[in-house]
């Protein structure tokens, strides 16, 4: 058995990449970007108010443990 020689890379072989190879070379998305893409692709527009309210409550909890707490408590 003689070893088979691999074909030399030509200009057309190196430039033409499969969709899988292109996807592997892309920069990964952040969690927020991926969630946004999920909402857009699946047309889950009803999730936007839920995520917004949860984000505002989380922000309120974070600010409640800082020096801004006295100003937040006066709002309620």
Automatic annotation (TrEMBL):
Q: Which InterPro entries does this one have?
A: DUF5989 (IPR046031)
Residues covered by region (Disordered): 1-26
Which keywords appear in this protein's UniProt record, sorted alphabetically?
Answer: Membrane, Transmembrane, Transmembrane helix
Q: What segments bear the compositional bias annotation Basic and acidic residues?
A: 14-26
Q: One Pfam family from the UniProt entry?
A: DUF5989
State if Transmembrane is listed as a keyword: yes
Transmembrane ranges? 44-73
What name is this protein filed under? Uncharacterized protein
């Amino acid at each position: 058995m003689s070893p088979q020689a691999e074909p030399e890379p030509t200009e057309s072989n190196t430039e033409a990449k499969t969709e899988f190879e292109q996807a592997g070379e892309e920069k990964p998305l952040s969690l927020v970007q991926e969630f946004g893409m999920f909402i857009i692709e699946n047309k889950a527009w009803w999730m936007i108010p839920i995520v917004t309210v949860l984000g505002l409550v989380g922000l309120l909890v974070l600010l409640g443990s800082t020096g801004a707490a006295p100003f937040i408590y006066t709002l309620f």
